[in-house]
Model the fold of this input.
Amino acid sequence: MKPQPPVTMMFLGSNASVISASLASGRYRYERCYPHTVVGSESCRSIVGTTIHRRKERIHATRHEILMATYNGAEYIEQQIASIQQQTLRNWTLSISDDCSTDDTLDIITRLARQDARIRIVSHDVHHGSPQANFNALMAQASGRYVFLADQDDLWHADKLALFMQRLHSTEAQYGSDTPLLAFSDLMVVDAHNDVIAPSFLRFIGRDPHRTQLNELLAQNLVTGCATAMNAALRDVIRSIVTHSDGDHMVMHDWCYALVAAALGHVVYVNQATVNYRQHGDNAMGAHRYSALKTLMSLIVHRAPIRRQRVARMHRMIAQAAYVRDALAAYDRPSSLETLDAYCAHIGCTECGICRP
Done:
């Protein structure tokens, strides 16, 4: 008998969500299009008198997945999501985890998810307590072949996804797709009204974007999460090591992810600003202009509050390095582990001006 083409049926439920079903080999295959919920578990439902069985796997695999952690971001989040929707690369999925916002954030993203099936809310009733923990939770469920991180208050340039994909593809061609890779770009610093403060974030803070070796990144972070992307190899490593509570060991999640990439693979630079990095009163992390004089004075003038802040930050950096070292102990990267060991051995040092109490 000649094979019959799949039969597609459309049902409109009382909740106005659309369900598409295919009849193939005597078995229904469907995906119920609640754009604001996660799809993928084994289930069976009766719809208009017809039982339709859901397959475990997604019908369409996600290739470019954007992870967005939100908390009380109602003022800017719709503009941010609009900038993602305007990307020249169109086949993406936006996964949002809301940290129990008390403003209108959840209402806004729920409305946008109903309007755009590429947007899904993966969590909204779990209190994570920090961006680190929220992004770790998102990473734990990430499935995209390439994963991008997004903040709730920036604006993406229209070619951001395309530029990152060019860089990741060329780097995978060089090192192999099984090598963990993290790409990052420059940002344009703007104020709350999107007026330009500085055309280059990295120059604004006095950083060299080519200092991406592990020993360099341990001392100074270059990576801003909203301007990063990773391949599946790095995604799988991070998924295997992070837990919700690990956020307490991270100075910031993006810095920690960069250390993992540098230890096991490569961190590469996209030589262009791809994000308008909005500065306002509620930034979790902000842009601070580099001043050589200010840096020198902070080292010379040992005011007690400055010294305490410096010591506290150094110990957080060492704790982060120790976390990465322990998490990657099972990987066969002796040179990276030696570098991490040497850095962590600095704890308790009484010789240098940084750690001396």
Q: What stands out?
A: The chain has eleven helices and 14 strands. Residues 304-327 form the longest helix (24 residues). Residues 1-60, 283-288, 353-357 have pLDDT under 50 and may be disordered. The first strand starts at residue 7 and ends at 12.
